[in-house]
Write a structure and sequence with these properties.
This protein is of the alpha/beta class. It has four domains: about 1-315, ABC transporter type 1, transmembrane domain (ABC transporter transmembrane region fold); about 335-410 and about 495-555, P-loop containing nucleotide triphosphate hydrolases (Rossmann fold, 3-Layer(aba) Sandwich); about 415-490, P-loop containing nucleotide triphosphate hydrolases (Rossmann fold, 3-Layer(aba) Sandwich); about 555-605, no CATH class. The protein has helices spanning about 1-5, 10, 15-30, 35-45, 55-100, 105-110, 110-155, 155-160, 165-205, 205-210, 215-265, 270-315, 375-385, 405-410, 425-430, 440-450, 455, 475-490, 505-520, 530-535, 555-560, 565-570, 580-590, 595-605; strands at about 335-345, 350-360, 365-370, 390-395, 400, 415, 425, 465, 495-500, 525-530, 540-545, 550-555. The strands form three sheets. It has a six-stranded mixed beta sheet with strand order 6-9-10-3-11-12, sandwiched between helices. Strands 2-1-4-5 form a four-stranded antiparallel beta sheet, covered by helices on one side. The longest helix is centred in the middle third of the chain and has 53 residues, at about 215-265. The chain binds adenosine-5'-triphosphate. Adenosine-5'-triphosphate binds near residues 372, 374, 375 and 377.
């Protein structure tokens, strides 16, 4: 019951429905107990004493009782439904809220399919138990107690004799619970594995098809399906073993009753009416006992499901606000960013950034260059406070970002990611995402700056065009331009472009960057790019390799030093005429051709420096 104790806050507010449901079911159950007594009366008083005139009245009483019982059963269903649905609603909201605030660290490992199965199947199991299962179990106890009391009042000796096999029934039921619970946990786990597989397959269908990996995917799914099937087979095996045993003990009680009760009737220590009443009361007790397996099954399923929900609800949020954290007003943010001796490693990974230092005055443009996995995106992630740093500090206008409310910190930043995500909504809503009270003119202005307006207008519904899941129907470059417009519309103090123009052609990139130059004015901008052309106007360019800063300076300064930057420049501009501006710098550069050549070769061969993206 510990699981349900921990889930209490989600259903206890609806306790009025629970009480109403229990009360309705108790009344319906109590009314059901009238039958055996009517039977006893019918046999001992009406039939035995031939008082047949009472039959119509008895029939009327039966009709009345049936009607009332049906009414209370309806009320029980109604209140239970309300209780279950309201609980599910509360839980769904709480889970969704938690998922919103869970940190990047959680999502690095989370599997979408698994989360989806928790939010649907597991939630449903908890809903069913809290709504119906719990009251039904209570009803089993009530039926047993009421039935036993009535039997005891009729004949206590016969009651005790017939109850002799009940402890065995209860013992078997408890053992059954112990076995079936872990089995159900495995079923749910394999179910979520299967859902994950389906979800990943559908999301990655293009990759699967382009690599012609359908047979492999079918086999992979088949393995998980097999696992799910086997877990269900094991569960059914437990069920098949215990259920007949429970049935046997239940039927044993009936046999004992018929033998002993029949003998008592012959001995005239029990009337025939009492035996018949006893018999139907016996079923009244056995019925719920019989169902106890089903209820236990329900209970264990929902307990396993509840555990999985609690796992999310109790999940530790790594990045959260301090009690003393402050909110920043828009007008007080300048955008001065300072990284002081920041070292960072992702959980269970080797260092991603070492002793990183950076001073980006308000309004400056910082370029980050480096090979794959060199730590460029990590710098940005840390600035966004996607992860907590353990060494060093990051300051915004002299204030440690850990002392600023997360929402407030991120409100002043706009980021365009390498991978664009568009919501299944109109282009308009996608651009306006993250900004409140924005006019159509502002949206169009942002789209124009991102060079997106023209292609949007060419679409049949223009800004109202719905872009499907993951922005299907748009090219990579178009999606990226929408994402850029979205970032620009936010009018942030800090603008981050994480390889934002990687999916557009050189010409469009150039055009967008012209727009950026206008836009960067008054904002601190971080540009991660693999093309030197995107970075050359930066106030400071930081070259990273394996998390370490290997070079830093302006384009002009870096062009004068032998090193990674110059080598990258040479590779990128190998086929293009060098601009007069750069030519001058190159002439002064202490050339290191061998080193440059060696670098080109390493880059092309993609050696352990990860290979520069060229
Ligand atoms: N979420 C993560 N969990 C664990 N390790 C990570 C995570 N993100 C990045 N890393 C690791 O940290 C290192 C730096 O990665 P980062 O993404 O910062 O590189 P990058 O320079 O941006 O690369 P790219 O140009 O390919 O985007 C890499 O070794 C990478 O494998």
């Amino acid at each position: 019951m510990e699981v349900f104790k921990q889930l209490k806050e989600y259903y206890w507010s609806e306790k009025r429905f629970m009480y109403a449901s229990i009360l309705s079911l108790m009344t319906a159950t109590a009314l059901g107990l009238v039958y055996p007594n009517l039977l006893r009366y019918l046999i001992d008083h009406v039939i035995a004493k031939q008082q047949f005139a009472e039959v119509p009245y008895l029939a009327l009483v039966v009709v009345g009782i049936i009607t009332c019982k049906a009414l209370f059963q309806y009320l029980h269903g109604f209140f239970s439904g309300r209780l279950g649905n309201q609980t599910a609603y509360n839980l769904r909201n709480a889970l969704y809220k938690k998922l919103q605030y869970l940190s990047f660290q959680y999502y690095d490992k989370a599997r979408t399919g698994d989360l989806m199965s928790r939010l649907t199947a597991d939630l449903q199991a908890v809903r069913d138990f809290i709504g119906f299962g719990f009251v039904q179990i209570l009803n089993v106890f009530m039926m047993f107690t009421f039935g036993a009391i009535m039997m005891l009042t009729i004949n206590w000796k016969l009651t005790l004799i017939t109850m002799v096999s009940m402890p065995f029934l209860v013992f078997t039921a408890v053992r059954f619970e112990g076995k079936i619970h872990p089995a159900f946990r495995s079923v749910r786990k394999s179910m979520s594995n299967m859902t994950t597989s389906v979800q990943e397959n559908i999301t990655g269908v293009r990759t699967v098809k382009s690599f012609a990996r359908e047979p492999y995917e079918i086999e992979k799914f088949s393995e998980r399906n097999e696992d799910y099937k086997m877990n269900n087979v094991t569960t059914s095996g437990i069920w098949a073993k215990y259920f007949p045993l429970m049935e046997l003990f239940a039927n044993l009680s009936v046999v004992i009753l018929l033998a002993t009760g029949g003998w008592m009737v012959i001995q005239k220590t029990l009337t025939l009416g009492e035996l018949v009443a006893f018999f139907s009361l016996m079923w009244y007790i056995i019925g719920p006992m019989w169902q106890i397996g089903f209820h236990i099954n329900n209970f264990t399923q929902s307990k396993a499901a509840g555990e999985r929900l609690l796992e999310i609800l109790h999940q530790y949020i790594h990045v959260k606000d301090k009690d003393t954290a402050v909110s920043l007003q828009a007008n007080e943010v300048q955008g001065h960013i300072k990284f002081e001796k920041v070292s960072f490693a992702y959980p269970d990974q080797k260092s991603a950034l070492q002793d990183f230092q950076l001073d980006a005055p308000a309004g400056s443009v910082i370029g980050l260059l480096g090979g794959t996995g060199s730590g460029k995106s990590t710098v940005i992630q840390l600035l966004l406070r996607a992860y907590n740093i353990k060494e060093g500090s990051i300051k915004l206008d002299g204030r440690d970002i850990r002392d600023i409310k997360l929402e407030s910190l991120r409100e002043h930043m706009s980021i365009v990611f390498q991978e664009t995500f568009l919501f299944s909504s109109s282009i308009l809503n996608n651009i306006a995402y993250g900004v409140r009270n924005v006019s159509m003119e502002q949206i169009i202005q942002a789209a124009r700056l991102a060079k997106a307006h023209e292609f949007i207008m060419e679409m049949p519904l223009g800004y109202e065009t719905i872009v499907g899941e993951r922005g299907m129907g748009l090219s990579g470059g178009q999606k990226q331009r929408i994402a850029i417009a979205r970032a620009l519309l936010k009018n942030p103090k800090i603008l981050i472009l994480d390889d934002a123009t990687s999916a557009v052609d050189m010409e469009t990139e150039h055009e967008i960057q012209l727009g950026f130059q206008e836009l960067m004015k008054g904002r601190t901008t971080f540009i991660i790019a693999h093309r030197i052309s995107s970075l050359k106007h930066a106030d400071e360019i930081v070259v990273l390799d394996k998390g370490i800063v290997v070079q830093r300076g302006t384009h002009q300064q870096l062009m004068k030093q032998p090193g990674r930057y110059l080598e990258t420049y040479k590779i990128q501009f190998a086929d293009q005429p060098i601009t007069s501006e750069d030519q001058g710098e190159l002439n002064q550069t202490p050339q290191a051709p061998d080193e440059a050549e060696a670098f080109i070769q390493t880059a092309v061969a993609g050696s352990d420096n990860g290979g520069y993206k060229l």
